[in-house]
Specification:
Layout (H helix, E strand, L loop, with lengths): L1 H8 L10 H27 L16 H14 L2 H11 L5 H8 L3 H26 L1
Helix pairs in contact: 2-3, 4-6, 5-6
């Protein structure tokens, strides 16, 4: 929220905002996606992730590794799909609420969430096969 506030305050001219809650929500989502993309770019520049868990002899990914993977996977998705996924499974909005926020139907939200979960599952399975 601080990032959204600072971006708004730093503008030369305050924009006319017809729907303040919608504007703030969209701004927060965009700032989050920018943050995720920035982390992904930083990690790819480093060559490797600098995590103590990476040297672990544990056979399964730890929760921190899973969180990092999920952040990276969401950053690679279509931003609209990632937003729906975050709203549903992290912010705990219902499909109907998401449809209202994103100005679409509940059916479209359900289909996008299904496809997003299938893609994330496929990517995660590929990741875990590579760990073993």
């Amino acid at each position: 929220m601080q990032t959204v506030f600072l971006r708004l305050v730093r503008q030369d001219k305050f924009p006319e905002i017809g729907n303040l809650p919608g504007y703030l929500h969209r701004s927060a989502v965009n700032a989050s996606l920018d943050l995720l993309r920035g982390k992904r770019e930083t990690q790819s520049l480093d060559g490797e992730l600098n995590r103590p868990e990476a040297a672990s002899t544990d056979h399964g990914p730890r929760s921190a590794e899973i969180r990092d993977w999920l952040r990276q996977a969401l950053a690679r998705l279509n931003p609209r799909w990632a937003e729906m996924f975050v709203l549903r499974f992290i912010a705990d909005y219902s499909n109907r609420e998401i449809a209202g926020i994103m100005k679409t139907s509940s059916a479209v939200v359900a289909v996008v969430l299904h496809r997003t979960r299938a893609q994330l599952k496929k990517d995660f399975n590929a990741l875990t096969r590579g760990i073993r």
